[in-house]
Every structure is written in structure tokens, then in C-alpha cells.
Design goal:
9 helices, about 300 residues, mainly alpha, about 0% strand
């Protein structure tokens, strides 16, 4: 079985002297390849986790909830409570009370359909969130482990370079023949290979951390939005339906007494405020997910460079 330490991390100069290279390659070629491939296992694994993040993001799209919130926010102000004020003797005589009540009931029905559609989309988002949340948490945990491992390799590589360059200065000063100078030159070139590799690893680690941060932020916003839809919005929708459906039914009875609308109007205002806040939260989530998508795309470019 291949020793993962040969490709997943860098070794100190002392360890390098003890390593037995593969028979198929010379020691110099093997060491050059090790420097060029440092951290490659972690880079590949981060690439797989990046794919998982993209798949999970597609499965929990909240665009439909955003559309329903926007529709309801636009529709709620259209409920005209002034129609219920035409309840006097003259209104009953001329039939205005009946037509006004029917118009109010019709407006209520249209809005009620929008509230039901929102409740349906909110439930769908809740189900996808429950199914994907645990998977996302595991992906983010693994991603952090991998980019921290790359950071460790970078630190090891920096120390290795510092030690090797110190040794190269001493060896160059002591070199007594062309062969010794050639070996010094070869090791100096190997240092440059490692310098270039560490630069790519730093970029990949930085992009991984950025994607991790954006994904964490999106996950937190998503959980908060789902909780709001489950609790505040669901509660206000239920209260609105109970009070306004009763009012709409009574509005159809033109012979009834003047209707008390203060309570239903307050319930209506509360739902408007709640929907507005939910819409704001949803828009912020969409913006966060857009930023995450951009960071994941950037991560892919850095991983391709470091592959």
C-alpha cells in the first residue's frame, strides 16, 4: 500500500535522507515529483466535496418560496376594508351593501389562495432542509479538515524550504568538484518546484476557506428562514385565515349589522409585516447563496490549477 505521507505531506530534510525511493524512478526524480505533488490527495478530496456542495445547493432552491412571498406581499394590500363600511339602511336599499360584501369576499379568496400556495412551498422547503442539513454539515466539516491539512503541509513546506536553503548555502560554499555543485543546483531547483507548489496550495486553501465561510453563512440563513416560516409566518397565516374568512363570510350577509373590522385589520397588518420580513430574509438568503456559488466556482478554478 502506498505510504500517504509521501504525497499528502512534506518531510523534514532528515526524513528525506531516510526515505527509500521507488525502484522505478531515481531518488532525484522521486523527490522532484513529491515536491510537485504535495497535498494532491487533499486537493482531490476538496474537489469531491465541492461537487457535493453544488449538488446540495441545487436540491434546496428557495426561489419558489421567494416568488410566493413576493406575490403575497403584493397582493395583501389589495384587500379593501372600506368596502365593509357600506352597511347602512340606504346601502341595503340600493343593494350596495351586498355587492360590496361580495367584492370583499372575492378579494379575500384571491389572497387566501396565495397564502395557501406560500404554505405549500414553505412546507416543501422545510422537507428539503431537513433532508439536506445533515449532509451539508458533514460536507462542511470534511472541507474544513481538508483545507486545514493543506495549511499544515504549507507550514511544513515553508520550514523545509528554510532548512534546505540554509543547507544549500553551506554545501555551495564547501563544494569541491563539479558533481557536488550539480547536486546543489538540483536541490535548489527542487526548492523552486516546492515554492511554486506551495503557492498553488495557498490559493486552493484560501479559496476553500472562502467557500466554507460562504456555505456556513448560507446554511445559517437557510435554517433561520425555515424556522421563521415554520413559526412566525405559519402562525400569522393561520390567524389571518381564521379571522378574515369569518369576516368575508359575514360580509356576504347584506342584512347583518355593521361589521367590526378593527381586529381583522390588525391581524391583516401583522401578516403584512411578517411577510415583508420573511421576504427580506429570503432575499438575503438568495444573495448569500449567490455569493456561495461564486466562491465555489472560484474554488474549482484554484483546484484545477493545483490538480
Amino acid at each position: 500500500m502506498e505510504d500517504p505521507d509521501r504525497t499528502a505531506s512534506l518531510m523534514t530534510p532528515t526524513k528525506l535522507q531516510r526515505v527509500k525511493p521507488r525502484a522505478a524512478a531515481s531518488p532525484a526524480q522521486w523527490l522532484d515529483q513529491m515536491a510537485a505533488d504535495a497535498g494532491s490527495l487533499h486537493v482531490r478530496r476538496i474537489g469531491e466535496l465541492r461537487g457535493d456542495l453544488m449538488t446540495q445547493a441545487t436540491a434546496r432552491d428557495c426561489a419558489l418560496v421567494s416568488q410566493q412571498l413576493a406575490l403575497l406581499e403584493e397582493t395583501l394590500p389589495k384587500l379593501d376594508f372600506s368596502l365593509l363600511q357600506t352597511r347602512g339602511w340606504w346601502a341595503r336599499t340600493t343593494g350596495k351593501s351586498k355587492s360590496a360584501g361580495a367584492e370583499f369576499a372575492s378579494q379575500f379568496e384571491q389572497i387566501d389562495q396565495a397564502t395557501r400556495a406560500l404554505a405549500s412551498q414553505a412546507l416543501a422547503l422545510q422537507k428539503t432542509q431537513q433532508a439536506a442539513a445533515a449532509a451539508t454539515d458533514r460536507t462542511l466539516m470534511e472541507l474544513e479538515v481538508e483545507y486545514r491539512a493543506i495549511d499544515t503541509i504549507i507550514d511544513q513546506g515553508a520550514r523545509w524550504l528554510q532548512d534546505m536553503r540554509t543547507q544549500l548555502k553551506a554545501r555551495h560554499a564547501e563544494a569541491a568538484d563539479p558533481e557536488a555543485l550539480r547536486l546543489v543546483k538540483d536541490d535548489a531547483a527542487r526548492c523552486e518546484i516546492l515554492v511554486a507548489r506551495l503557492k498553488l496550495l495557498r490559493a486552493a486553501s484560501s479559496a476553500s476557506q472562502q467557500a466554507h465561510q460562504q456555505a456556513q453563512g448560507a446554511a445559517a440563513r437557510r435554517a433561520a428562514l425555515v424556522q421563521m416560516l415554520q413559526q412566525a409566518v405559519a402562525s400569522d397565516l393561520k390567524a389571518w385565515h381564521v379571522r378574515l374568512s369569518a369576516l368575508a363570510t359575514a360580509a356576504g350577509d347584506s342584512s347583518g349589522p355593521a361589521l367590526g373590522v378593527e381586529g381583522p385589520m390588525e391581524t391583516h397588518r401583522e401578516l403584512q409585516l411578517c411577510v415583508k420580513q420573511a421576504r427580506t430574509d429570503c432575499d438575503q438568503l438568495l444573495a448569500q447563496e449567490s455569493a456561495m456559488a461564486q466562491s465555489v466556482q472560484t474554488l474549482g478554478q484554484q483546484l484545477d490549477a493545483a490538480a
